Description:
Layout: H1 3-8, H2 16-29, E1 46-48, H3 60-66, E2 70-72, E3 81-87, H4 107-124, E4 128-134, E5 138-145, H5 148-160, H6 173-183, E6 189-194, H7 203-212, E7 219-226, H8 228-232, E8 240-244, E9 251-255, H9 256-280, E10 284-289, H10 295-308
Helix pairs in contact: 2-4, 4-5, 6-7
Amino acid sequence: MDLRSELHSAPLFQNLELLANQIVEGFISGIHKSPFHGFSAEFAEHKIYNTGESTKHIDWKLYAKTDKLYTKRYEEETNLRCHMILDNSASMYYPEIKKLSINNLNKIGFGVLAIAALMNILKKQRDAVGLSVFSDSYSFYASEKGSERHHQMLLAKLSEISLDRKPAKQTEIYTYLHQIAEKIKRRSLVFLFTDMFQTATSDEKLFDAMRHLKYNKHEVVLFHLLDNETELHFNFENTPKRFVDVETGRHIDLYADSIKEAYEGGISDYLNDLKLKCAQYKIKYVEVDIRQPFTKVLNTFMIERQNFL
């Protein structure tokens, strides 16, 4: 058997569901005394009990602690529809990491784990979740559902995303976001995980596609995934290096320090323009450093969920 082929077809993580649970449990332990009202340790949503309502779902343990009557809502109908969109193009496989772990991630690994963790919370809340994955094609779509079978199917799909050393080179984000927007019919909370690196079209057309996602009163959150150490601050050892654009194949040979200042200025201008465009189109922009914990992503979800309902 070709060992390299076996490694290239291996899943990103051996037990994605277990890792997602680990992330969420760590997050839960940090919000027991937080301002996220309406969530217990099991993320069961509560509302104040009104006289005349059924007493079937009163949380008597909470009554013993607070001397107030609250009812649980986690057994009722779905409260939220959420659609996850994952960019699976070549630039998302940066930096190249031979063995991913929860503390050693590239952009695609962070995106997969973040989505799995959010799905874990959505499952606990009995919310519906859908998933779209694109690279050089719109390769996967699943509409929003809340069943256990659907949850396992999405986890399996995320686990399938492999350590392929030759992922799709270029992506047409513009084209696929328009296609995804056409598929999401009912009002949803839409999360887009991407590094926003694309050369196929102008930024204006890209934002036109993102604005399309706002149709049908969807709320859109852009999680902009970056390796801040290198992609934001350009911190490389100052020796001769060849820098290769993984999506176009173009390269340049140089000393990192010779362009560090100009690079930082250029990326800063780009990010400022990106944030302004998102604000203009009422898209929530969240810059995410893949070397940091998942707290920013999960906090954003909790806040956006409360605002959405």
